[in-house]
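Input/output pair, single chain:
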Amino acid sequence: MVVSKKAMRDSIINAARYIFARFGYRQATMDAIARAARKGKSSIYYYFKNKEEIFLAVVEKEASAVKEEIRNAIASTSDPREKLTIYVLTRMRVFYRIAHFYSSFREEYFREYDFIQRFRENYDRYETKIVLDILREGIKKGIFSIPDPMMTASSIVIALKGFEYLWGTEQDIGKLENKTEGMLEMLYRGILKR
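Output:
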């Protein structure tokens, strides 16, 4: 049976996901990834140049799954206020799940990895566009009154990033959801049309 290049890469990415979850980026090795993938180390290098490239592939796969989950969640309503609430809570729940799966990476999360920073900047632009679209829909429907939607969307994304540490370290998801909903209520009191 011939295995496609994509299937082989996916197999390596899936194995690497568990290695990074267990050891974090710094302590994960190409040897451990090769063992987990049940491949020779030279086979791993055929598909990926280095550990950084594998890690980025893992991050991109997680990001694609996050985007899909968020798209499905916000598609469940046409009300912009509900859509924004669903977006924020879904985004933070997914972050919680990922942060707790990659618990050994949690300590490394706030270190400056240039390659992660570049990925994060692209993801931030993606998030800002989603929030901006929701805000513009709310303005169009007369639900939101926002003088500068782009600045507001950027501010919301920055606020969510500020919540990440809390969501990555706190165990009680109910407490996290209450705090996040409280932040949203403060936001709505400031942007709901009166």
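The chain has one domain: 56-191. The mean pLDDT is 86.
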